[in-house]
Amino acid sequence: MKTLGLYIHIPFCMSKCEYCDFYSVANNSESLKDRYINALAAHMKEYGPQARDYVINSIYFGGGTPSLLNEKQLKFIMKNIKSCFNISPICETSMEVNPGTVDAEKLSSFRKCGINRLSIGVQSFVDDDLKAAGRIHSSEDAYKAINDARKAKFGNVSIDLMYGLPNQTLQSVVDNVNTASGLEVDHVSLYGLKIEEGTPFWFNRHKLMLPDEETERNMYFTAVGLLEHSGFRQYEISNFAKRNKACRHNLKYWRASEYLGLGPGAHSYFAGKRFSFKKSISLYLDSFDPSKTTVEQLVDEYIDIPYSSRIAEYVMLNFRLNLGIDCQAFRKQFGQNFNDIYYDRILPYINSGHIVKTKNGYAFSLDGMYVSNYILARIIDFDMIIPGTN
Ligand SMILES: C[S@@+](CC[C@H](N)C(=O)[O-])C[C@H]1O[C@@H](n2cnc3c(N)ncnc32)[C@H](O)[C@@H]1O
Ligand code: SF4
């Protein structure tokens, strides 16, 4: 059977953080969440038959803030997942957790419902950073959430850290990474602040005291060095894991493997097509309300990817991983020689040291990873004509 990742979007937060443009609303009403999970269950019933040839070996509850679900709501979702899809007995089941929304008892109930991996949104252990970012929690809450996760017997705990926040210093990033290394966590995601259009940070961008380019670069390189030194192996531009703790679900995104995303704003790569659902909770609820059904309006984008674009997409995604491109795997997947198509394009970056030759192909050096978006934009051409493809 083919494997599939399942993403479940929970679009509710206590309040919106200043930098965030993930689709979510500041609303924690139990009745709204109850209506939402009923719509999710109907959505699963719609896709279950289409996924009957797949086995799901990763489930990811993302948001928004999935940790705002109560035990009964999570149990209901898990029961519906199990009745609609084939679930692997060794499924990785992750949940994003905001430290301001959980305690040991709640985490223990999540564990009992089948969650076996947590991704805790710490962002920083410095209270001033958290305040500037509009987070609802303190550093104390973050320590407690990590501790409570261990008490609740989670054997796979990840934390998110951000760098490049307003007024943040290099020393504060060093302290954050050292603190993370001293705690019992298995995985760290390290994100550089992106000022996303339409967020409060974007509207105030001229007033924000952001670190300059050189400092931000130093933050990334120093943090990567410290994490590697503490036993976290970098496996993707922003992701670091202890042995065997790389996130199976997120790896599917970068390996261009299949996943199905349910909920408003969720994206899928399923049965050779990429699609997403509109970012509207009310449309989502109406779509599965038998009296109003608007289900055909729910799909936002539907892209049947031509074969040559699949190659471009594969190269773009795999280059994010530290293993980079495996030329033999590329040939196996596309029946083409990677060097025939891409060598001339990557040569300038091999010469500049941004791309290095590996045992099996090519990968970014750390310098290359830092400017990967710039380089990939120059290497990848989705409209490129590749002989032998159409
Ligand atoms: C959906 S959120 C995580 C879960 C939870 N809602 C929370 O915030 O604790 C995913 C992560 O993306 C990162 N993130 C969100 N917006 C970002 C931005 N504009 N720039 C960089 N990282 C961002 C944060 O580290 C955040 O924890
Ligand atoms: S970062 Fe997390 S808690 Fe903050 S608004 Fe975004 S999804 Fe919600």
Structure notes:
It is a single chain. About 40% of the residues are buried. The protein has a 9-stranded mixed β-sheet, with helices on both faces. It folds into 2 domains: about 250 residues, TIM Barrel; about 55 residues, no CATH class. The two termini are about 30 Å apart. The longest helix is centred in the N-terminal third of the chain and has 18 residues. Helix 6 links the parallel strand 7 and strand 8. Helix 2 packs parallel to helix 3 and helix 3 crosses helix 5. The protein has 15 helices and 17 strands. It has about 400 residues and is an alpha/beta fold. Bound molecules: S-adenosylmethionine (SAM) and iron/sulfur cluster. The site of S-adenosylmethionine (SAM) has 16 residues, from strand 4, strand 6 and strand 7.
N-to-C span: 28 Å
With strands numbered from the N-terminus, the spatial order across the biggest sheet is 9-10-8-7-6-5-4-1-11
Shape: globular
Largest sheet: 9 strands, mixed
Which structural class do you get from the secondary structure elements? alpha/beta
Segments where pLDDT lies below 50 for 5+ residues?
A: none
How much beta, percentage-wise? 15-25%
CATH architecture descriptor text of the largest domain: Alpha-Beta Barrel
Question: Helix content range of the residues, please?
Answer: 40-55%
Helix tally equals 15
CATH class of the largest domain: Alpha Beta
Count of domain modules: 2
The third-level CATH topology of the largest domain is TIM Barrel
Mean pLDDT comes to 95
Q: Which ions, cofactors or small ligands are bound in this entry? A: S-adenosylmethionine, iron/sulfur cluster
Radius of gyration: 21 Å
Corresponding CATH superfamily of the largest domain: Aldolase class I
Number of strands: 17
